[in-house]
Amino acid sequence: SGSAVPAPAKLAKMTKTTVGMAAYAVTSSMMLIINKLAVTFFPHASVLLCLQLLATTAIIGVLSTTGHLNADAFEWEKARPFLFVALGFLGALYANVKTLQYANVETFIVFRCSVPLLVSVLDRFFLGRAWPNIRSWASLGVVSLGALAYVITDANFEVNAYGWVGVWYACFAFDAVYIKKIVDKTSLSVWTLSYYQNALAAPCMFVFTICNGELAGAMAHVWTPADICVVSVSCVAGLVMSWSSMNLRGLVSATTFTVTGTMCKIATVVVNCLMWEKHASAPGMAALFVCLFAGMGYQQAPMREGFVSGNANAREMEKVKEKLIG
After folding, report:
1. Fewer beta carbons within 10 angstroms: which end of the chain, N or C?
2. What predicted TM-score, i.e. pTM, was given to this entire model?
3. Rounded to whole angstroms, how far apart are CA atoms 267 and 14?
4. Tell me: the pLDDT tens digits for 31-60?
5. Confidence of residue 315 (pLDDT cuts 50, 70, 90)
6. What is the C-alpha separation between 245 and 194, in angstroms, rounded?
7. Calpha distance 304→285 (Å, rounded)
8. What is each CA distance from 178 to 25, 206, 243, 249, 274, in whole angstroms?
């Protein structure tokens, strides 16, 4: 139809994408604050992550068994392709928590702001996207310059923290591209993808907690009601975050996914400034807000014509996504 009003199927897709972006934005923003709070009450980062992974795996497993969630039972043949997904996901999560343990939240957020620049290049070479337009390149470029300005002006520069940010950066870029490739090819439900990802990552994380000695320290931890409450909340938040991120990956491009996660961080900065003393200087905060607002100018790049030729459904889906995002 040539009507300007979207057909019911298109409208449903646009609604699904909008809800998916909103859900991910909210959970991504709050997860950063919750994890910062959790490692303050329970300073054993790898054990905390292990608990979150185990909790997500257990909750999805139980609810799927009772018929409350649409997740397949764990089968190695189905799960095997997700092993690298789990390892990349695990590396990004652990480096994320370690960064929050050793540095202020803004340090992590501003480097997150520069990730879309790299992912847009990977999108072009590995996922069939066209190059971003001039407006999008300008948006991503200003974001990267804002990140550089933050590093220069940050009075709390910490070598260890920035080292962990570097580890996270590499893991997240791989994670964004590889998971997107897997999600686009599979017919498994979002809950199944989340289940497999966490089920494969949890044992690896448990072994790591033994090797790095944090499990012994956690076993000696004297739990208070506040500790239990905060860690429990972080586990529930981890479940919601796992689903919302996997859901959005299937709806938008890898670059749009990373830009969405970045833009929602304004709320995180506001909450962080109210909660913590350890945050950036005034020039550093200004650079951070430049990053966040510049990212709003990004427009999702379309699929390359040759990449979707012969697949009318894929082309139609891309048009709907680009209408929503661009």
Report:
1. N
2. 0.72
3. 24
4. 878 888 898 899 998 899 899 999 999 999
5. very low
6. 9
7. 38
8. 21, 24, 17, 11, 36
